[in-house]
Write a structure and sequence with these properties.
The protein is an alpha+beta fold. The protein is built from 50 helices and 36 strands. Strand 3 and strand 4 form a beta hairpin. InterPro entries: Quino_amine_DH_bsu (IPR011044), Vps41/Vps8 (IPR045111), Vps8_central_dom (IPR025941), WD40/YVTN_repeat-like_dom_sf (IPR015943), WD40_repeat_dom_sf (IPR036322), WD40_rpt (IPR001680), Znf_RING (IPR001841), Znf_RING/FYVE/PHD (IPR013083).
């Protein structure tokens, strides 16, 4: 356990500053620390069920749960009301009633009482688990507590509560509030109030850290706003006077709190706010007259578990001097469980603690309670019926009395015994992980409050005895942290992370223990693990990395203590490290031991060379293990030559030159130490070149970069180069790629400005000869790529360029030729390189396009490239016609005719023109920008007629630039009748196109008539049907624009052509397909019936001389088919007429109901002059009633300018309804009229006195009904509807007219202008839809 107390007098600001880092560890990591318990819940869910080996059983359910009243009325000497089935689980022993001394700070030198209890030997938990807890002094808060006591007479600290803030209560009634940085934010209360209320005896902060409850030694309770520091409530009547507040705690409900006083009673406090006045209602939950409660603990749930079903009960655990009770505050007060202690030490402190744990994959709250040395665990669950079940878990036997119990997470608990020792226990295995002495904290005890000294000590002796060791208000836990309040300080404790625990052991040089602890983390056997997340594989990987670091640290420390350092024989005898590493394939560790332990850098290379050299020299393939060793060897050599240690770190500076020289001398040895007679020279260089030529040369290149340009470095470089040349050039074992890598490496080195190497130029000529003139043609691309890399690396200066080009052309190294031509700006010759190279020939188009479009090339260069492209235009077109056409259209659209002349091959010309002119080929060129003459298009059409006649019509439909007459001649030349007919139709010669199609149809019919039975019947019929369909489509497309005579000139010849083969049925050789021909003929009749009258068709058939001689039976099928069509159309017409008549009747009924509906005025007086309409004297005055119910005299409305003239008619607007928005009234009225929203009105003449019965005018008015303009207009519309107009148009116009009519006068007036109805439109087509269902 790491103790960091600070006993020096430090200024307040300095303390706050020096401890800011420590507090940040505990507070700024609050988000993660507060989730420790829930992380552990998740971990427990992942554990196997066999880890939970507790002996569990359900507490039996009683028939009728005890009521609170019955519990309060129990006597202490009666039989226990709740007995477990197995009393042995309680482990009730006979305990003497010896009165122990108080284990307080004042009496910290009291004797150790553990000899009175069962003694168990403490396991060496430190060696097994390391330091589990980390505790730190909060220097800033501690200093300010002392300062407040000295400067403002705050008194000594008495209570602490922790959330995201820290609240400390003092003996003079002040509450000090500190933030996360240990800064004092608020000082609540004053010493005068403290003198009245006494010391603060209890504190509680609500969930959102907005309210603080303070309980005082004289019984008062205050509530503070932690944001503003205002006093919100001062409660003096919540419990009986003369008793101190022992506990006060918020529940999860911010309006509900629980308090416990020194009389042993428990009260529920409900905070309300009525009409802006804050009130507090108190309810007694437990009376101290029947048993004193000295500890309460409500169940708090974190936000992650706010929806847990158990939270709706708002459970509260209470510990009296004789029993434990669990009650539910919601939805109604109910006792869920009672549990008696049995025999116990009367001075033992009852303890309660809730926590959510995971058992059998379910998360439920667990209550831990104890009094004395046995801790019981109760798992609380809610079943489907809503009842709560309590399950007894395995209890924990201790050898010491407890004064505090705290959950630090769901698997780990922290216990404080009566001699102020902390015990960290794993709950499931009950293993003690660590013991810590905290007497230096000088813990504050609450004895004076339990004795109620501030109110005269009016408490029972039993409660006062318990209070001797009560420290409830001195210890507070939050987010996996435990805060301890001392008389002059505040300490915080938390679990160390797994890495911190390992590092703590390493700092104390406990390497073996640290490695064992890390291994327990790796195997998942460690306890109180914090900081390891993810699945098992990820956790193991993280721990394994740390274990490797520990092993390196261990090996480094062991090597430094090795006897006779530097002698490998002693090393192997003493540690056998090298042998063990080699056997376990720990090559990195072996190299590390050699380098760090003995400063030996050559032996590791010798060991690795002995493994990989034999198979490489024999030409065998290396195994995976040997490849790994070879790669490690290369990396090791690279590190040594660069001055770096392997696998990490740096070689000591004084050894770097020596190591480099040793490694170089080793690599360039002529023979190995145990060389056989057959071994070739320079075996190590040869082995590395065979293993990986490129990587070995890269290692050398990096080494050359690091070398200083001194004499020795130059000699080493020249020497290694000479050896490389001797090994590779004089040997045929290396591939062209390997030889090329060497000379590329040499070319790069020679091309450096400060180069000091010398290489014979003839060697480069030999390499060129080797690459360009091989014995066979294998590896052609590899040899070309190697030579290209050599030239690009600067090796071109080593060759004669003309000879290089000749040899490259001979070897068909076209990329080499391109590289050389590019240097000489001979871009036209590069085109030949692309065209000759089968792998890159299609890239020639992009190359030509780049040369011609990218700026930077001269006009002469572009012209030469284009000329070369023109010379090879046939090759380009045959290679890819689309790319060639796009290239020509992009850069030389004005020279298309020249290109066409160069293309002598007609097939190539066709492909070129097709790619150029047909947009379907995907060419990305604007066709309008080409500006080609029609002759080019016609030439393409002619080629299309030759090579792809089936696509001519589709192509003509998308082509534009061609002449009809010339194109018709071309199609006639190649006898493409369909195409000719299409062009004639496009030209406007419909009859000419029809004759061509008719002639083709007749020829097809003639083929069917005269073919033999062995011919392909299906194919012939299909041709006839296709030709007939095309002819019908031609007639249908153009019949709309022809008169009756012209239509008959199209359709009747077609009908005659289809009926002609059927007339021959009476001959000696009837045709083979009578049914098929009849079906086709019916298809023609059905199609022409839409354009030719049926009588004309029948007359034409009957005028035929064949059918005029009594052969009507042959056309009976045709006539019956026509009659069926007629019957179908007649039925359709009758159905349509019936539907229309029904709609018309429905519309008439609705229209009649709407035009005859009267208006009911709301009053019998004018809304403007307020006079009854009968009392006005004006004879000509009218009464106007609007649909809104307002009634006016017409004269009054005119005076108010409520009339609008539109289209020669007067429209009225309601004065009251339109006066609400007088501003812009005229514009609004006009807009309402346009929208049809003016209120409808009715007008009636109202004479001032009743007329005489003999007045003829009155009789005439009464006898003749008068229609208003709207009624007349509706009647006209109905007349038009009756003449056969559409229901849709009727409803549309009716809805328009209804919205536009604003009034309906009783007296006659001028009708509106003539109405132009949509119903009179001849082009209106009937749409059959069901009538809409609407309500009046």
């Amino acid at each position: 356990m790491e103790n960091e107390p600070d006993h020096e007098n430090v200024e307040q600001s300095l303390c706050a500053k020096t401890t800011e880092e420590e507090l940040n560890k505990s507070f700024n990591l609050e988000a993660s620390l507060s989730k420790f318990s829930y992380i552990d819940l998740d971990k427990e869910l992942e554990f196997k069920n066999d880890l939970i080996d507790d002996k569990e059983f359900d507490i039996p359910q009683v028939d009728t749960p005890p009521t609170l009243e019955s519990i309060l009325n129990e006597t202490d000497d009666e039989e226990e009301s709740f007995v477990l089935e197995d009393p042995t689980l309680l482990n009730i022993d006979t305990i003497d009633s010896h009165s122990y001394d108080t284990s307080s700070v004042a009496s910290s030198d009291s004797g150790d009482r553990t000899n009175l209890k069962r003694k168990k030997k403490l396991p060496d938990s430190f060696s097994l688990h390391g330091s589990v807890m980390r505790h730190s002094l909060l220097k800033g808060i501690s200093a300010q507590i002392v300062s407040a006591a000295d400067k403002v007479d705050a008194g000594l600290p008495t209570a602490i509560a922790v959330s995201s803030l820290i609240a400390v209560g003092t003996s003079h009634g002040l509450a000090l509030i500190f933030d996360q940085n240990q800064a004092l934010r608020l000082c609540l209360g004053n010493t005068s109030v403290g003198g009245q209320y006494g010391a603060i005896s209890a504190l509680s902060i609500n969930n959102d850290c907005s309210r603080l409850l303070c309980g005082f030694a004289k019984g008062q309770i205050t509530m503070w706003d932690l944001a503003s520091g205002k006093l919100l409530r001062s409660i003096t009547d919540a419990h009986p006077p003369g008793t101190a507040i022992l506990h006060i705690k918020f529940t999860d409900d911010p309006t509900l709190a629980i308090c416990n006083d020194s009389g042993g009673s428990v009260f529920e406090l409900t905070f309300k706010r009525v009409m802006g006045v804050r009130t507090c209602e108190s309810r007694c939950l437990f009376s101290g007259s029947k048993g004193e409660v000295c500890c309460i603990e409500p169940l708090h749930s974190k936000p992650e578990l706010k929806d847990h079903p158990i939270t709706q009960f708002s459970l509260l655990a209470m510990a009296s001097l004789t029993k434990i009770l669990v009650i539910g505050l919601k939805p109604s007060l109910k006792v869920w469980m009672t549990f008696p202690y049995g025999r116990m030490d009367p001075s033992s402190v009852p303890l309660l603690a809730w926590h959510f744990v995971a058992v059998h994959n379910y998360v439920n709250p667990m209550l831990a309670f104890c009094r004395g040395d046995v801790v019981h665990f109760l798992l609380v669950k809610r079943d489907e019926s809503g009842a709560i079940h309590v399950t007894k878990q395995k209890h924990l036997h201790l050898y010491y009395d407890l004064i505090n119990f705290t959950w630090i997470n769901s698997r780990t608990v922290v216990l404080l015994d009566s001699v102020e020792k902390l015990h960290v226990i794993d709950r499931q295995t009950q293993e003690e992980l660590e013991t810590v002495e905290i007497s230096e904290v000088q813990l504050v005890y609450n004895s004076s409050h339990f004795k109620s000294l501030a109110t005269g000590g009016n408490v029972s002796q039993a409660l006062a005895l318990v209070g001797e060791k009560a420290c409830y208000q001195s210890i507070s836990s939050y987010g996996g942290q435990i805060f301890y309040l001392g008389t002059k300080s505040v300490y915080v404790m938390m679990l160390r992370s797994w890495r911190e625990r390992v590092d703590h052991l390493l700092k104390q040089d406990c390497l073996t223990e640290a490695l064992a602890l890390a291994w327990s983390f790796h195997e998942g056997k460690a306890k109180a693990v914090v900081g390891l997340s993810g699945d098992a594989s990820k956790r193991k990987a993280v721990v394994a990395d740390r274990m490797v670091e520990i092993l390196f640290h261990y090996a480094d420390r062991a090597l430094k203590k090795c006897p006779d350092q530097g002698k490998i024989q002693v090393m192997e005898q003493h540690f056998q490290v090298v042998l063990m590493c080699w056997e376990n394939r720990l090559y990195d560790a072996m190299i590390y031991v050699y380098n760090r332990g003995m400063n030996e850098f050559i032996s590791p290379m010798e060991k690795l060379f002995r493994v990989i050299s034999p198979p490489l020299n024999a030409g065998r393939t290396l195994t995976d293990e040997q490849v790994v060793m070879g790669n490690k060897l290369l990396v090791y050599i690279s590190c040594c030559l660069a001055g770096r240690a392997y696998p990490l770190g740096d070689i000591p500076e004084d050894l770097v030159p020596l190591v480099k020289n040793q490694v170089f001398e080793f690599l360039i040895r002529l023979h190995s130490a145990e060389a056989s007679p057959e071994e070739e020279i320079y075996p190590y260089v040869r082995t590395l070149l065979h293993f990986d030529t490129r990587e070995f040369l890269n290692v050398l290149a990096l080494t050359f970069e690091d070398f200083k340009n001194d004499k020795q470095a130059v000699e080493y470089q020249q020497r290694i180069v000479d050896i490389l040349l001797k090994v590779m050039v004089e040997n045929s074992d290396f591939t062209p790629s390997q030889v090329g890598c060497l000379f590329t490496f040499l070319a790069r080195q020679l091309a450096k400005p400060d180069n000091t190497l010398f290489v014979n130029r003839t060697l480069f000529d030999q390499v060129l000869e080797f690459l360009c003139s091989p014995d066979d043609d294998s590896r052609h691309s590899e040899r070309q790529q190697v030579l290209l890399e050599l030239l690009q690396a600067g090796g071109i200066v080593q060759f004669e360029e003309s000879r290089l080009i000749r040899m490259a052309e001979k070897a068909e190294f076209y990329q080499i030729c391109e590289f050389m031509y590019e240097r000489e700006h001979q871009y036209d010759k590069i085109i030949d390189c692309y065209l000759r190279d089968p792998l890159r020939e299609e890239e020639v188009f992009n190359y030509i396009h780049n040369i011609l479009s990218i700026p930077g090339h001269s006009a002469e260069e572009k012209q030469s490239v284009w000329q070369k492209a023109m010379d090879h235009i046939e090759e380009l077109v045959s290679l890819k016609p689309c790319k060639a056409a796009e290239l020509v259209a992009t850069h030389f659209s004005e020279q298309i005719e020249i290109v066409i002349k160069k293309l002598q091959n007609q097939v190539l010309l066709f492909k070129f023109l097709r790619s150029l002119l047909d947009p379907r080929e995907g060419i990305h060129v604007n066709q309008e920008s080409l500006q080609m003459p029609p002759s080019v298009t016609e030439q393409f059409i002619e080629l299309l007629c030759q090579f792809d006649p089936n696509q001519v019509i589709e192509t003509l439909q998308i082509l534009e630039c061609y002449r009809l007459e010339e194109t018709i001649q071309i199609t006639q030349k190649y006898q493409l009748h369909e195409v000719t007919a299409y062009l004639l139709e496009k030209k406007g010669d419909i009859h000419g196109a029809f004759l061509i199609m008719l002639k083709r149809l007749q020829s097809k019919l003639q083929e069917i008539t005269h073919q033999d039975e062995k011919a392909k019947e299906d194919l012939s019929l299909k041709d006839v049907e296709d030709t007939m369909v095309e002819t019908i489509a031609l007639c249908q497309r153009n019949s709309h624009n022809l008169n009756q005579q012209q239509r008959e000139a199209l359709w009747f010849p077609l009908l005659e052509a289809m009926m002609a083969p059927q007339k021959l049925s009476g001959s000696a050789a009837p045709h083979l397909h009578p049914e098929a021909l009849r079906s086709l003929t019916m298809q023609v009749l059905n199609s022409m019936a839409a354009f030719i009258a049926l009588p004309s068709i029948l007359q034409r058939i009957l005028q035929d001389p064949v059918y005029g001689k009594g052969k009507l039976g042959e056309i009976q099928g045709l006539i019956l088919g026509m009659l069926d069509t007629f019957n179908y159309e007649q039925t359709l017409l009758e159905t349509t007429t019936s539907l229309l008549n029904q709609d018309l009747h429905w519309s008439l009924c609705n229209l009649r109901a709407s035009v005859t509906r009267g208006l009911n005025p709301k009053q019998d007086y004018c809304s403007i002059c307020l006079q009854q309409y009968k009392r006005r004297q004006e004879m000509a005055d009218e009464i106007i009633v609007f649909s809104c119910g307002h009634l006016y005299h017409s004269f009054c409305l005119q005076n108010k300018e409520c009339t609008i003239e539109t289209e020669g008619r007067t429209r009225w607007t309601c004065y009251k309804c339109s006066s609400s928005n007088k501003a812009g009234k005229l514009s609004e009225n006009s807009s309402e009229i346009k929208k049809g929203k003016t209120a409808p009105s009715q007008v009636k003449m109202s004479p001032p006195c009743p007329p005489s019965k003999g007045d003829p005018a009155v009789k005439k008015a009464a006898s003749e009904p008068v229609l208003d303009p709207q009624q007349i207009q509706a009647f006209d519309q109905l007349c038009r509807l009756y003449r056969g107009s559409s229901r849709l148009a009727l409803l549309t116009e009716l809805s328009q007219n209804r919205s536009s009519d604003s009034y309906r006068p009783f007296s006659g007036s001028q009708s509106g202008p003539a109405f132009n109805s949509i119903f009179q439109n001849e082009n209106f087509q009937l749409q059959l839809i069901p009538p809409p269902v609407t309500e009046d």
